[in-house]
Amino acid sequence: QAQLVESGGGLVQPGGSLTLSCVGSGFDFASFAMSWYRQSPGKERELVATISVPSGYTNYGDFVRGRFNISRDNAKSTVYLQMNELESEDTAVYYCKAIKRQTYWGQGTQVTVSS
To answer: I want to staple 33 with a disulfide (CB 3.0 to 4.6 A). Which of 13, 59, 99, 101 is the partner?
Structure first.
């Protein structure tokens, strides 16, 4: 059974950094494109970043403005989201998603940016 488990969320001050991790199991992780999404209360879920296969091409939401970096380690079946210069507007639940013919979602990890 396919599963994605996110971790690394928490409380961080504005201007700080966090790295989220998402570990996949039960499917061929290396053959799936991987994305991070986020959702704040009262807002629609939005795309944060995607990393494609096999090229490793990445793309980001406009709001990222060079602050985040998505990467993957296929040997560990893990995708990462390094987030820098965090702002209060980045507060959300962050989800990872595996994309091929099927799609799988993780359960999410809360990121709160507050002083």
So the answer is: 99
CA atoms within 13 A of residue 93's CA, in its CB half-sphere = 13
pLDDT tens digits for 36-62? 999 999 999 999 999 999 999 999 999
User: What would you report as the CA-atom Rg of the chain, rounded to the nearest whole angstrom?
Assistant: 13
Q: 84, 17 in Cβ contact below 8 A?
A: yes
CB atoms within 10 A of CB 65: 10
Residue 18: both structure tokens together: 């966090």
Q: How many CB atoms lie within 10 A of CB 89?
A: 10
